[in-house]
Amino acid sequence: MHMDRLATPALVIDRDVLDANIAVMSALRPGAALRPHVKAFKSTSLARRLAEAGHLGFCAATPREILGLAAAGLGDDLLLANEVLDPERLRELADCDARVTVAVDSVETVDAAARAGIREVLVDVDVGCFRCGCPPADAGRIADQARAAGLEVRGVMGYEGQLMMTPADERSERVAEAMAPLLDAHEAVGGEVISGGGTGTCLENTFVTELQAGSYTLMDTHYASQGLPFQQALSVVCTVISVNPGGWAVADGGLKALGMDHGNPTVEGYEALYFSDEHVTFTPGADGRLPEIGEQVRVRPAHVDPTVAYHESYRIVSDGQVVDDWPIDLRGW
Amino acid sequence: MHMDRLATPALVIDRDVLDANIAVMSALRPGAALRPHVKAFKSTSLARRLAEAGHLGFCAATPREILGLAAAGLGDDLLLANEVLDPERLRELADCDARVTVAVDSVETVDAAARAGIREVLVDVDVGCFRCGCPPADAGRIADQARAAGLEVRGVMGYEGQLMMTPADERSERVAEAMAPLLDAHEAVGGEVISGGGTGTCLENTFVTELQAGSYTLMDTHYASQGLPFQQALSVVCTVISVNPGGWAVADGGLKALGMDHGNPTVEGYEALYFSDEHVTFTPGADGRLPEIGEQVRVRPAHVDPTVAYHESYRIVSDGQVVDDWPIDLRGW
Fold it and tell me: Which residues of A touch B9 (CB under 8 A)?
């Protein structure tokens, strides 16, 4: 089927761009040096392509992502890079058919993991992101508590999320500064794993043993501004449903098809005016023209993760043809 | 079950507040004078409560919302208040077990509706929202085209979305200005229906025969600032998973649980610092304290519609007890 017959709004992956992004990152971080973060794309079909590219360990932000990967046979080495206290969901993680490691950053999260039967943990360390992670000086104590509770401590993790949009010429220095306390914490904690980083620091973070990156596969306009060696594979394809002689047009994708926290997505070839629940209103671009009713337009998301979480599936496109359909089967919590 | 045992993030409706909101609006706009807009809440369970309150006609923004209402036996009089060109989905609407009216604003949308076997339409008129709707002067011509194509024209609709956040003391005047061209268009079009309005203009829009409002049922912080006679029934209940001695805490609801286009949601009792994919980071509120790890916090959405679209179900709470579970069964397109 040609993509001009897609029911819209449709979340579309350009397969050739995706494949190129995967190849570039696999060259930078081969095999276990990359632990792809599935929160960015939430699909076991895409995860399987990464496994085929040699990355057998995955990183996740929710219990459902872990359970879905396990059920899909992708459970070689799964890291829940997030703190969870819920005993039921922790027990499901402990009981699923996979090697599951969870992040802990407090005595409470250590206790919850141990009581649920979790076997392996990483100590999550605050590296300046103002989110989870213990103060670096507490990491050794938390590792001791975990070992005392019977948990295997595989090492440390720390996400320098505050640096994902740092200008390229400052990135090396700032990543080194952020990783220094993580390396100190690792000295105190022990174990083989130092996990961290993301798409935005994939070139500079040479301190971790494994990079946690997912957005590089699909990319968005925010990351595209950062001079990274990846191209945008993701778009929301919409149909123009109304053209007003006043000088604007409206397509059928809006706030329920696009994450908006990074600002307005980009309507290719036009100027986005505003987004409402199920619509984007736009004005002419440089060529001064508006589309016809029924034409498709491509909207490039500003933030991949909360965009993907709205959709049920990806339509995979190559050379204008829809060649596959991948369920977004890791949504929810 | 007490709500403190909820798996989080949980989308929670306070049932008593919802019931009060429904009662207030039913007094203002009884029976068919209100056509509740299901796009705000996307649940046939909530729609059924509105039907029980006497509102048997519904308004929707997507084909799936219409088909779901029809399948739930709520198909007395359904309006797709949006333009659709897709022949397959229009045919599904024509064939479903419901009275379905669709909006048209161009010869293309008239033709698509007629070819698919749709029987009834409203002419959608631009009343200043910079979205769909024909220029008022074109409405008569489009009605003629629709009748020539064999469609029954029930009247007109026009959404004054640009006025939903107008200060209360200007609203009457501005609503009257926006509705004047709709009334002119109605003169040219004929039919019994003048449909329009929304939660933000429910007190002032006395020009329409039926008000299209949905957000009033659940409310959000944006509408709550408008002095309307409705209270916030909706929250995202989260669990505190990390507390940092540096002075912040983190709970387990973020960009994939909350629509962000209206700015930051509110963390009750605290100051939201920022939201990331699965987290909200917050600092102490007026009392200077942070919660304990494991405590619940309530996050009030800034925009109800794109928040609801992320979730699978509502947990219905009354007096702190979870009393019901309503599927959000009208998601997608």
Answer: 333
